[in-house]
């Protein structure tokens, strides 16, 4: 790889010949899909070519190239993780099955998406909205600029054309009233 980095194209041919089989077999056995293995295989070699100028021999070349291959596999599975449950479903290859939508309908919802959890979040959101609506307009404005806008006290003071201390007081009063209104949620 050092010779290839120095510009020797024959060195790349030697590397490719030496690692072509083992690298392809590794990818094919890891993913179990010859087409995908071929695609990932080419991507690994493209990464080797692109890394030529910055290559530093911190480990053996074989360690380096197989680390690239492993990371490429991990990246691929992360990108396509939403498709994995359907691939490994018990009747995924069964032509009599109704389809992936039917399979998804039979899976339980995540705990944060159950009807009870959704209803509870809606109730909390409604309570917060009512508590915000009950604030005086100036306090609500300062609070929302701070929380939703992420503005500092100085930025809020400039945006609302009032002093920093006035802004600070309005924010403190707004927080106090919201805490009092929503104390059972805290």
Write up this protein.
The protein is an all-alpha fold and 186 residues long. 70% of the residues lie in helices and 0% in strands. It has ten helices and no strands. Helix 3 (34-50) crosses helix 4 (61-79) and helix 9 (153-160) crosses helix 10 (164-181). The model has no long low-confidence stretch (mean pLDDT 83).
Q: What is the residue-mean pLDDT, rounded to a whole number?
A: 83
| Beta-strand content | under 5%
Question: What is the element string, with H for helices and E for strands?
Answer: HHHHHHHHHH
Largest sheet: none
Total of helices: 10
CA radius of gyration is 29 Å
Uncertain segments are none
Tell me the distance between the termini: 60 Å
Overall helicity: over 70%
Q: Can you tell me the overall shape?
A: elongated
User: Tally of extended strands?
Assistant: 0
Structural class: mainly alpha
Ordered list of secondary-structure elements with their pairings:
Elements: H1 2-5, H2 9-31, H3 34-50, H4 61-79, H5 84-87, H6 100-106, H7 115-134, H8 137-147, H9 153-160, H10 164-181
Helix pairs in contact: 2-3, 2-4, 3-4, 8-10, 9-10
């Amino acid at each position: 790889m050092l010779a290839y980095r120095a510009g020797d194209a024959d060195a790349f041919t030697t590397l490719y010949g030496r690692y072509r089989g083992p690298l392809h077999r590794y990818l094919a056995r890891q993913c179990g899909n010859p087409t995908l293995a071929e695609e990932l295989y080419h991507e690994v070699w493209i990464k080797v070519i692109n890394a030529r100028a910055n290559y530093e021999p911190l480990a053996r070349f074989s360690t380096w190239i197989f680390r690239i291959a492993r990371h490429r596999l991990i990246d691929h599975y992360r990108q396509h993780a939403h498709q994995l449950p359907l691939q490994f479903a018990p009747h995924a290859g069964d032509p009599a099955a109704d389809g992936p939508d039917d399979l998804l309908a039979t899976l339980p919802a995540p705990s944060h998406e159950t009807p009870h959890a959704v209803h509870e979040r809606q109730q909390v959101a409604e309570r917060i909205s009512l508590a915000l609506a009950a604030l005086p307009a100036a306090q609500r404005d300062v609070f929302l600029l701070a929380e939703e806008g992420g503005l500092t006290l100085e930025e809020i003071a400039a945006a609302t054309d009032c002093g920093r201390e006035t802004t600070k007081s309005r924010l403190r009063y707004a927080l106090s009233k919201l805490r009092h209104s929503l104390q059972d949620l805290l």
